[in-house]
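Model: You mentioned two targets. I'll fold them one after the other.
Researcher: Yes, keep them separate.
Model: Target one:
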Amino acid sequence: MRKRFSNSYPMVVQWGDMDAFGHVNNVSYIKYFESARADYFTEFQIWKPGEKLKEGPVLIRVEMNYRKQVHYPNTLQVTVGLESIARKGFDIGCSIWMGDEMVADGMAKVLWFHFDWQKVVPIPEHLKNLIH
């Protein structure tokens, strides 16, 4: 079972997030995690929105475990945190909460990428210190 991470971001469930069965579609959880990750990256100055980067994080894998159904209307808390860090990448954990109930949890694997060179490069030390 995943934990509730210290970085928390509210996500309002939209009517369009539901599927034909009347609950939040599984793709929506991935989008909630994506939005929370972007807020996390902004908060920890891993990137600045709108800034063209020479290098930065690229997502290479996402995993999501679905635990409970969620219905509209609702507001969820998406918690995000660093799970591990290596020389050229890191894993970000996620847990999604409806009150005290965890409704989903997941993980994203991120590599540090140089966009001009089109290859994976080491994470700069100052950023390692920020996210660690």
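Model: Target two:
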Amino acid sequence: MSTRIKEAKLNRCALFRVVLLLVSFVLLPGVSAADEKTTGCVIAHFTKTETMEVGDVPGHVLGVAQQAGLMFPSTGEI
């Protein structure tokens, strides 16, 4: 395995860890500290999905999906 591929894997791993820490310690506490809790039902389906080769590393694929559906929020406890 070449040095460039190893460096790319290490950079991806480091980026993943930074994003995971950011979400865990910065964004999630604000969401869980909300005064209101929302419950309900979501009915959705994928209307379009696409995948494409990124090209930087063999096997690296990017996926994009579009969903359509309905959300039925309920008041009170279920």
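Researcher: Noted. Anything on target two?
Model: The first strand starts at residue 39 and ends at 53.
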